[in-house]
Request: fold
Amino acid sequence: MNGGVWTVFEEMDRLRRDLDRVLGGTRSGRGDLPSFGVAFLPAEAPRAYPLVNIHDDPERYRVDCLAPGLDPDAIEISVTGSQIALSGRKTGLDQIPAERWHRVERATGHFQRTINLPGEIDRDGVAARYRDGILSISVPKAEKSRPKSIPVTVA
Amino acid sequence: MPNATATRTEMTESPAGTAATAAPATREEGRYLTPPVDIYETENDLVVLVDLPGVGQDGVDVRVDDGLLTIQGRTTPQRGDDPAYREFGLVSFHRQFQLSDQVDHEKITGELRHGVLTVRLPKAEKVKPRRVQVTVAS
Reply:
């Protein structure tokens, strides 16, 4: 510890790294808090969009994506190995001339995101449903990724 | 651009400080997010688009009370909502706007589709652009 001197910058750096780890630094490599509706802001590095929650049930994974205002026909979902790729576009006020805008706060634009699932999946059984602005993708696990319960016999 | 000179009917967001008298009566306890909105103007309406992901038909509440437009969206916790990996949580939404009297408060309509609420606020007759017929005297 530098002969007892309090190295404030080292401390700050360590704190930042700890926070990044706690908050999940995988998100666009920046450890941003998932903040709502700020994707696609100008002068910001692209952030993960849509935000996802992944449920790990015994039979399947369920990927819920927070993506209001999409055209369901324009959502592209593809499966490669155990990776799900999502892409699409959220339209905003493109059709409205700019002099008629009063406020533009909603995130819009093209998006693309890939999600790596931890186990092998059954690609033919993947199904997606879009409801109330939440895209819910159901991904059945491959037979060998499902948990198998082992009966215990008493000798 | 025939309507470029149409009156811009301004709508102001109810500031947190001055709405102190109205806010406690209209907002219930709990966690709320301020949803992002787009507002634009057409010839006859002001249109407000609000992102309310996770809010169904039963959860949305739009009301006008003494010139204050309150938009509220309640999300319902989903069955077994304990994801292994989480980036978002569904919370309820709340936002208020002060309406001017240039909007017809009686004819406001709302539509919810794919998690986006569209509120149409028709302009009052007096602020709609009116074309004056000019007769040519011979």
